[in-house]
């Protein structure tokens, strides 16, 4: 962990000074405005600013002497999130930097996922890290350990998406409990005490976690720590059921005990409020209900008071936020907040509690505002609170739900991608056999022959099928890309003629480019396909909206700064420089219920024969494989916009040159070969075709149906000149077999054939000096590949 910076003492000093200034300022606010809320706000703001300063000071030196220069985006992302424990690791799993909160949470700088948690938690983190590398983001809820329950968010970041940012935050319940504890034990508690309210936060087993000073004094008789005491031991009940402090005895003032609905769950802490139950009614303004109202308004979680008739008396800000209502537009009844189906249940429960039901109840309700995500509403009865008869608490979990949904969507796309990749792989084997047999037959027929045209037809159709499997591989991000550094406007201009033709007479094409666009690194051919696929969909939507003709397709490029990404308020795309390309149409638009599905393969709303449902999934695969992001935006009837963001690639402009032209195909006579080839392939049909093709080219071919058979064959025979093998085979795979063979013949040339992408294979196959041939291949391509490997110097 050499690259971690030592704690910087000037930063500490700066923090201490800033904290001092913040507290003095808060004290002034308190004197001038006489408002604890404003003062607390001031302290909170000061802490946030100081947090940012400290994080900045601590992280900047790490960047300076780190093993690798950290880009500003990551540093900023980490500093911005400094309230949580944050760490950054690189591709090699090394810890590059971490903040103070991280050190405090984990007692030092362990490298995630090797944290001082239990095995299960670390395994969950490791799995999530793999998901984050793949999909950009992953979430682990409730990582248990270190006496706390944490939520971990792992985000891929960095200009080259080569870092992981790990963020650990206490789960929201714990966060709220901590805030409540702080409020009760701190000045807010004193203020409640002045108003005659005693408040305590307790464990589910009744042990005191925090209490305000008045309660402590009344219960113990002296200042001292009440924390950890069993609350029930501090109270006595008389024959009439009245509760008093044990210390004050039966002469003491009876108490009213109110359990405030706070957090859900068995392990959640309880909030208890005690009021003196005097017969003499308190003076107006200091009435119990007035006290409780001030308590409600101070609480950091959503709370509301309801009267005996079931009408709202008060809601605090957190409740307004969670319920999604404006302070100026508060409904009369709680039932008005929820969807029609839940109205009766809410009204019934409130009536029951207003009539005296004691235990609190939790119910999942759907708010009118966002009916798709149920929220937890806790209802409890309140005795002796003046007008207030029922207490409600509402938890705002929309942020959590949104994050969960995004992660679930990414995971689903990945699963579908794996399936598509698997199907494409098997299909490529079948196509290899079909194409191979066609090629072999064509060699025996000449044009003009009665069968020649039919065989050509089979071959053409098989090639079409092969291009479909390529699309599937593109979607599952297993396609071989040939990335180059390029400018997006060049890609658009390359296809603009084609686009004009595709749009026809009636659809206007409107292309515009922003200034200062950064170059991106991607496969130009694939990006052209992205633009064409998006444009074709747009045209279809325009025509569907207006069959008489008329409409506009706009293609626009622009530079996007990290600040703009942050403003977009989405958690998936890391803040960085991007070049964006958007395709906007004036078509039918996409209904909200369809929008989440459009990138899935085979999802189409077009009639049979018109849509394959592969257009957008291909687009998605290409964009993802190029390290980018794509989002669709639409309001039905107002057209749709697809925006692709590709990370800006920073390079020397001199390297921006077009790719070398492809080599001309060799003549058949140049493909003639000789020598012995060992062919290992588990699919009989592929093996048979390849064997015949190679034999025709003049090679002596030995075949084996798996790795073990091949090794056995080599044990009893001489050295072959070339080994051609499938990669994935049952029992022993190609690479393992080649490793054994190389022990005996270290320089034996090897050619792997596979239905998966070369890049993917090269990464997973740790062998030097091997060549790849993607399936499906023609007889000619196999001959070319064999010949090239054999004649290589
Ligand atoms: P296909 O075009 O073969 O149906 P795609 O994957 O390209 O497959 O698109 C999937 C679906 O997404 C389409 O059937 C259509 O419902 C919807 N869609 C895509 N682009 C647009 C657009 N620009 N406007 C409206 N709907 C669209």
From TrEMBL:
Pfam family, one: PAS_8
Domain spans labelled Histidine kinase: 422-650
Enzyme class: transferase
Response regulatory domain location: 676-790
InterPro entries per record: CheY-like_superfamily, HATPase_C_sf, HATPase_dom, His_kinase_dom, HisK_dim/P_dom, HisK_dim/P_sf, PAS, PAS-like_dom_sf
Catalytic reaction annotation: ATP + protein L-histidine = ADP + protein N-phospho-L-histidine
Protein keywords: Membrane, Phosphoprotein, Transmembrane, Transmembrane helix
Gene3D superfamilies: 1.10.287.130, 3.40.50.2300, Histidine kinase-like ATPase, C-terminal domain, PAS domain
Annotated TM spans: 12-33, 39-59
Sites of 4-aspartylphosphate modification: 726
EC identifiers of the protein: 2.7.13.3
Source species: Sphingomonas mollis
CDD domains: HisKA, PAS
Listed SMART domains: HATPase_c, HisKA, PAS, REC
Protein name: histidine kinase
């Amino acid at each position: 962990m050499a690259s971690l910076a030592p704690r910087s003492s000037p930063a500490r000093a700066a923090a201490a000074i800033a904290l001092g200034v913040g507290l003095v300022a808060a004290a002034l606010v308190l004197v001038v405005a006489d408002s604890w809320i404003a003062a607390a706000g001031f302290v909170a703001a000061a802490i946030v600013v100081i947090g940012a300063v400290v994080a900045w000071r601590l992280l900047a030196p790490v960047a300076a002497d780190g093993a690798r220069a950290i880009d500003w985006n990551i540093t900023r992302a980490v500093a911005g999130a400094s309230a949580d424990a944050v760490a950054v690791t690189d591709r090699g799993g090394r810890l590059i930097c971490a903040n103070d909160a991280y050190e405090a949470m984990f007692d030092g700088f362990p490298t995630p996922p090797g944290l001082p948690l239990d095995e299960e938690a670390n395994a969950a983190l490791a799995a999530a890290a793999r998901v984050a590398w793949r999909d950009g983001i992953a979430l682990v809820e409730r990582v248990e350990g270190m006496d706390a329950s944490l939520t971990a968010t792992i985000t891929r970041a960095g200009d080259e998406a080569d870092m992981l940012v790990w963020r650990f935050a206490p789960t929201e319940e714990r966060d709220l409990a901590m805030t409540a504890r702080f409020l009760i034990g701190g000045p807010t508690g004193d203020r409640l005490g002045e108003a005659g309210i005693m408040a305590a936060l307790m464990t589910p087993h009744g042990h005191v976690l925090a209490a305000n000073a008045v309660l402590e004094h009344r219960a113990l008789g002296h200042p001292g720590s009440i924390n950890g005491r069993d609350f029930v031991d501090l109270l006595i009940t008389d024959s009439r059921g009245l509760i008093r402090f044990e210390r004050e005895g039966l002469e003491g003032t009876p108490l009213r005990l109110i359990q405030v609905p706070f957090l859900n769950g068995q392990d959640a802490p309880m909030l208890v409020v005690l009021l003196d139950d005097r017969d003499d009614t308190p003076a107006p303004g200091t009435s119990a209900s007035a006290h409780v109202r001030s308590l409600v308004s101070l609480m950091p979680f959503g709370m509301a008071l309801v009267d005996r008739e079931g009408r709202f008396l008060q809601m605090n800000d957190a409740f307004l936020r969670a319920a999604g209502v404006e302070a100026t537009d508060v409904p009369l009844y709680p039932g008005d907040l929820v969807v029609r189906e839940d109205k009766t249940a809410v009204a019934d429960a409130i009536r029951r509690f207003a009539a005296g039901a004691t235990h609190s109840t939790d119910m999942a309700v759907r708010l009118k505002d966002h009916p798709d995500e149920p929220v937890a509403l806790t209802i409890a009865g309140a005795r002796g609170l003046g007008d207030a008869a029922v207490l409600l608490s509402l938890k705002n979990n929309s942020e959590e739900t949104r994050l969960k949904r995004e992660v679930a969507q990414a995971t689903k796309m990945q699963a579908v991608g794996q399936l598509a990749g698997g199907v494409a792989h098997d299909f490529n084997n079948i196509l290899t056999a079909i194409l191979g047999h066609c090629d072999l037959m064509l060699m025996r027929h000449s044009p003009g022959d009665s069968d020649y045209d039919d065989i050509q037809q089979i071959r053409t159709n098989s090639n079409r099928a092969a291009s479909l499997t390529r699309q599937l591989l593109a979607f599952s991000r297993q396609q071989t890309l040939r990335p180059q550094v390029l400018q997006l406007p060049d890609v658009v201009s390359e296809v603009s003629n084609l686009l004009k033709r595709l749009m026809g007479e009636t659809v206007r094409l409107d292309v515009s480019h922003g200034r200062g666009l950064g170059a991106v690194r991607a496969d130009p051919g694939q990006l052209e396909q992205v633009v064409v696929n998006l444009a074709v969909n747009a045209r279809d939507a325009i025509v569907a909206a207006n069959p008489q003709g008329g409409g506009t397709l706009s293609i626009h490029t622009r530079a996007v700064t990290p600040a703009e990404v942050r403003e977009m308020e989405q958690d998936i795309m890391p803040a960085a420089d991007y070049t964006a390309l958007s395709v906007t149409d004036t078509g039918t638009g996409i209904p909200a219920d369809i929008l989440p599905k459009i990138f899935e393969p085979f999802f189409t709303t077009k009639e049979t024969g018109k849509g394959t449902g592969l257009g957008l999934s291909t687009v998605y695969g290409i964009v993802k494989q190029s390290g980018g992001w794509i989002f669709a935006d639409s309001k039905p009837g107002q057209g749709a916009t697809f925006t692709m963001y590709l990370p800006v690639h920073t390079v020397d402009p001199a390297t921006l040159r077009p790719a070398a032209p492809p080599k001309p195909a060799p003549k058949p006579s140049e493909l003639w070969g000789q020598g012995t080839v060992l062919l290992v392939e588990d699919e009989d049909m592929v093996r048979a075709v390849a064997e015949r093709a190679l034999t025709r080219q003049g090679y002596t071919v030995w075949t084996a149906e798996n790795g073990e058979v091949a090794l056995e064959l080599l044990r009893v025979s001489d050295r072959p000149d070339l080994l051609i093998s499938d990669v994935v085979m049952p029992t022993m795979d190609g690479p393992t077999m080649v490793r054994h063979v190389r022990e005996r013949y270290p320089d034996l040339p090897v050619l792997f054939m596979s239905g998966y992408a070369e890049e993917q294979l090269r990464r997973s196959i740790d062998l030097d000096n091997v060549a790849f041939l993607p399936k499906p291949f023609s007889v000619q391509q196999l001959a070319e590949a064999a010949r090239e490997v054999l004649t290589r110097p």
